[in-house]
Write a structure and sequence with these properties.
By secondary structure, this protein is mostly helical. The chain is built from four helices and no strands. The protein has one domain: ACP-like (Non-ribosomal Peptide Synthetase Peptidyl Carrier Protein, Chain A, Orthogonal Bundle), CATH 1.10.1200. About 25% of the residues are buried.
Length: about 80
């Protein structure tokens, strides 16, 4: 799972153009608000990138909110819904 978390961190930095490094992102740091500071536009892009890179669709808003809490919760969601 640590490889998956690293992939997610790299995706966040690269595709959302974050001003940080993948290594600086804590697994449990909030993705939105006071954490990484992502906003609603980032959330839309993240849904697209998760589908593109991991083949996982997030269709339900409530599921998406839970999955996008942190890198850890997103990794758990992807692992549970892949293939």
């Amino acid at each position: 799972m640590s490889d998956l978390k690293e992939e997610i961190k790299e995706l966040l930095v690269r595709d959302l153009r974050l001003q940080t490094t993948a290594a600086a992102i804590d697994d449990n740091e909030p993705l939105f608000g006071d954490g990484l500071g992502l906003d609603s536009l980032d959330a839309v892009e993240l849904v697209v990138q998760v589908n593109k890179h991991f083949g996982v669709q997030i269709k339900d808003m409530n599921e998406g909110q839970k999955a996008f809490t942190s890198v850890q919760t997103l990794a758990d969601y992807i692992a549970a819904h892949q293939g």
